[in-house]
TrEMBL record:
Keywords carried by this UniProt record: Membrane, Transmembrane, Transmembrane helix
Top-rank lineage group of the source organism: Bacteria
Membrane-spanning residues: 7-30, 36-56
The protein's name in its UniProt record: Uncharacterized protein
Length: 93
C-alpha cells in the first residue's frame, strides 16, 4: 500500500510541477530558470502533500513497523504504564 501512495504522490508532483512550469514560462513570460525553480518547488510541495494526505487517509497497518500507526486498542493509562515499566498496576523490577 505504501509504494502506491508514494508512486501516486510522485506522479502527481511531476504532473502539477510541469503544468506550473509551463504556465510560468509561457503564460507569465518568466525566464527558463524561474520555470525550472517553479517546477521543482511545485513538484516537491505536491508530492509531499499528496503522499501525506494519502497516508493520513489510510487506516491499514501492515505490521512491518515502517510508518505504522500506534495501536489504538490500548488506553492512555495502559500506554503510560508501559512507558513507566509497569505491568497491570505493578512495578517491574
Amino acid at each position: 500500500m505504501g509504494e502506491n501512495m508514494a508512486f501516486f504522490g510522485l506522479a502527481s508532483g511531476m504532473f502539477f510541477g510541469a503544468i506550473a512550469s509551463f504556465v510560468a514560462c509561457f503564460v507569465y513570460g518568466l525566464p527558463l530558470w524561474m520555470g525550472l525553480v517553479t517546477y521543482s518547488a511545485c513538484g516537491v510541495f505536491t508530492t509531499m502533500a499528496v503522499t501525506t494526505a494519502l497516508y493520513m487517509r489510510s487506516d491499514s497497518d501492515d505490521g512491518s513497523g515502517s510508518m505504522s500507526r500506534f495501536n489504538e486498542d490500548k488506553s492512555d493509562a495502559e500506554w503510560l504504564a508501559a512507558l513507566n515499566g509497569e505491568s497491570k498496576g505493578q512495578k517491574v523490577a
